[in-house]
Amino acid sequence: MNWLLAFSMKAAVLLAAARVAAFLLRRSPADVRHRLWLAALFGVAILALPVRFPQPVSIGVPVQFSITTLGGALPARVGTGVWPLWSALWIAGILVALARLLAGVATVAFWTRRARRLNPTQMPRVLVSDLAATPLTWGVFHPVILFPACAVEWPADQLEVALRHEQAHIARCDWLWQTLANAMNAVFWFHPLVWLANAGLRREAESATDDMVLASGVDAADYAEQLVRVARFLSGTLPLATVPMARSRILESRVREILDPLRRRGQASLATRAAVAVLACACLVPLLAVQEDPALHAVWNAATPAAPAPPQLSEPAAPAQAAPSTIVPPRAARLQTDTAPQSFAAKPEPVSASDPGVVIPRPIYKVEPTYTEDAKIAKIQGSVRLSLVIDELGRAEDIQVALSLDPGLDQQAVEAVRQWQFTPGTKDGVPVPVKALIEVNFRLL
Ligand SMILES: [Zn+2]
Fold first, then answer.
1. Which of 136, 262, 263, 265 could form a disulfide bond with 211, CB atoms 3.0-4.6 angstroms apart?
2. How far is ligand 1, taken at its centre, from the CA of residue 136, in Å?
3. Is the pLDDT of residue 294 over 80?
4. How far does the centroid of ligand 1 lie from the alpha carbon of residue 206, in Å?
């Protein structure tokens, strides 16, 4: 959840920057903006590459003083049970979107199998299909151009224009880029800016293809008329996995662009391509740099100030008493006063929290331990008990593992608690080091 949120925000920043850049480059050739959207979408993919799923761990209440349990407010619960629901929803969305994409490929493959050659002697990959409603192309290594059945009656010049359009798509590898963008859309279906970027990519690909056709010498008015004529036969929805000649949704703007004599056409120069790449990297690098460990976040505990230690404070539990049934009670984690003599070498001698006149420390800054990959794989759950001294400044010192769970998780617990900050314990109003036991619960959701 944390990872997804952080990723979504970074992707939003990147895609918003691309949107602004596309607007600023609105007078440039469509090919430039197409490359811009491609770079932005690749950037989003790179942001997602170090896929770090949120730690499926609920720390519950990692540490809880007995005194707080008795009457004060509980520290904020920092674990989350929302992640599994979110992950299920996310994965379900991915599966639906990928199924739609694969169904598109299967459909167009089926059309291709049922198609016949347009010209039996030439152009083996140019076919006529009774099922295709518009000229379209698909495929990477052996791209196929499909014409609708009515194309056999088209005049030669009309056929030629349509052919040039689809060949331009092939030359630009538009099917490949569009399919990759669709796959990204499937993975990040929840992100509206990914949808908008995908739509922008598709629109600019069509415009750039139109520019290529016009650059080949086709008259703009004839070409626009041809597009409208093709669009007249459009019916139903096209499979997602195709690059068609005409889509009714963007037809009007394309015709307007085709007929615009002032419009800049042509392909992006090498310098422009390099500039787009540099721009994309310039946006991407800072976003990558702020990748933080999503599982670590501090909790400031605004609980009521510590009251004098009540007599109910429990005796320290012996390590052997940690029965499995106590592994994950919601409020089980606790700090127990330690009355047993210990071998701490702190100076001055730490006091026990049950000593008369002692106000026990209270955590005010906590860092969650993280699950190790090994422990996750082995599904290790349970408690790590740490004995420590909280010094006069509220720092955790002399941390020792009193009850081990797993070497990796022990280490994680020690590392986390080492960063905790407490209110200093006092005895008769004077800050003193206090002995403590802390249990850290690890639970897989
Ligand atoms: Zn097209």
1. 265
2. 7
3. no
4. 5
